[in-house]
Amino acid sequence: ALASPYETTLMVYENETFMPLIEAGRTEENVVWSPAFSPDGTRVMTASWDGVARLWDAASGEMVAALEGHEGMLTSAEFNSDGTHMVTASSDGTARLWDVATGEELHRLVGPEGGVNSAVFSPDGTFVATAGGDGAARLWDAENGAELAVLQGPGDGIRIIVFSPDGTRVVTVSDGTPQLWDVESGMELGVLIGHESMVQSVAFSSDGTQLVTAGADETARLWDVASREELAVLAGHERWVNSAVFSPDGMRVLTASEDMTARLWDAKSGAELTMLAGHRDRLTSAVFSPDGTRI
Fold first, then answer.
1. d(CA 185, CA 78)
2. CB hemisphere CA count around 281 (13 angstroms)
3. What is the dihedral of CA 106, 38, 287, 214, to 10 degrees?
4. Measuring CA to CA, which residue among 215, 243, 230, 239 is closest to residue 270?
5. How far is the C-alpha of 295 from the C-alpha of 21, rounded, in Å?
6. Which of 76, 142, 170, 276 could pair with 262 as two cysteines, CB 3.0-4.6 Å apart?
């Protein structure tokens, strides 16, 4: 799934032929971003500037639910691992947990006045991590909404936070240098130095051994988690790279860019495999379906 904000559309592609299957979400006044497939691949979720998270049927492109309640624009939205719950983050200073089946708001996680820039579930769904505008990341109990720990970063605001697949590590980004943390102790494990400008996204491989980062320096980069060494630079985009993710099998990397294209890369060699063009404005994100057959 690809999202282009000013074009305000969601597009779903088939991964082998790269033909567009769905174009949905077009409005005249709204901005759509942060698309995510449900774990079973039947739904796509989007966040938007109007403060509403929407669920779409992945086959037909029809909207099936709208989760309303935030008082500011949404900055992120995510399913938990079994697709029964969602967490949304907003500039209104809160993250919220939702029941997917009923659309009911379950818990309100009150963050800093500077807003919540991102919210994610741990892989087992027991924790939620939020990235705050005050420069701190916070861990929460997903069952009762209680705050459990605060990870204080060096910058004014953390924009990105991502769990490792086993839930023992998190990566945070406040500027151009991602930081790796131990969840249990709250200790910083190291930094990833290489990007020449602001880092836009971070993602782990499915086995947790590698990271991919996307940057405003027009590159994505592959990293070894254990050593924090840079493995490859994915160069080819002509403007900022806004997101980069691994395919479920870890063999490919998908990037989305301000140059209005998404590109598919070989995760081992770093070679560009294909380019997906069709949007008429910049791409904010791109993701694989759970089985890796759709983008």
1. 25
2. 12
3. 30
4. 230
5. 10
6. 276
* 73 CB-contact burial (10 Å; exposed 0-12 / middle 13-18 / buried 19+): middle
Tens-of-pLDDT digits for all 295 residues of the chain?
Answer: 444 444 445 555 555 555 454 455 444 455 666 678 898 888 888 888 888 898 888 888 888 889 999 999 998 899 999 999 999 999 999 999 999 888 899 999 997 777 899 899 999 999 999 998 888 899 999 999 999 888 887 667 888 899 999 999 999 998 778 999 988 888 889 999 999 999 999 999 999 999 999 999 999 999 999 999 999 999 999 999 999 999 999 999 999 999 999 999 999 999 999 999 888 888 988 989 888 988 8
CA distance 18 to 191: 36
Coil vs helix vs strand at 238: coil
CA distance 288 to 91: 27
Any idea of the CA torsion for 281, 282, 288, 294, to the nearest 10 degrees? 20
How far from 271 is each of 192, 195, 264, CA to CA, in Å? 22, 19, 9
Closest CA to 86 of 71, 70, 72: 70
Residue 118: both structure tokens together: 């991102």
d(Cα 50, Cα 15) in Å, to the nearest integer? 30
Contact 92, 83 (CB under 8 A): no
